[in-house]
Amino acid sequence: MAKPSPREQIRLRVTFSPDVALGPGKADLLEGIRDTGSISAAGRRMKMSYRRAWELIDAMNRSFKQPVVSTSKGGSGGGGGELTAMGEDVLELYRRMQDACACAARDELAALRRRLR
Predict the structure, then answer these.
(1) CA-based angle 71:76:81, to the nearest 5?
(2) Helix, strand, coil percentages for the chain (3-state, nearest 5)
(3) Residues 61-106: tens digit of each pLDDT
(4) What CATH number does domain 14-115 carry, 3.55.30.10, 3.90.1150.10, 1.10.10.10, 3.60.10.10?
(5) What is the pLDDT of residue 74?
(6) Where are the domains of the chain?
(7) pTM surpassing 0.85?
């Protein structure tokens, strides 16, 4: 089944409890860390402060059985961050759920699109 046009988006937010959720922002942050190897660079890419990025990572690390991001302290070479195996798994599962939702809603999105001006 084909995904909807890139113009439409399904924004998936999975809430496990009032304090534990995974949505597009956290997934994008994980992707940014994976791509850049840096929490600060991932945050900048999203126009997010380092503090906010760190708060989101800390919340995710506390929510899952194992940390999703591992960090190294700064220094002459600077610090870094990388996804753990758990982080890779969480990101992959979330993206698969997102794709499945988009595919499942393809016909409804097309029907809504036809009703737009």
Answers:
(1) 15
(2) 55, 15, 30
(3) 999 999 999 988 766 555 689 999 999 999 999 999 999 999 999 9
(4) 1.10.10.10
(5) 66
(6) 14-115
(7) yes
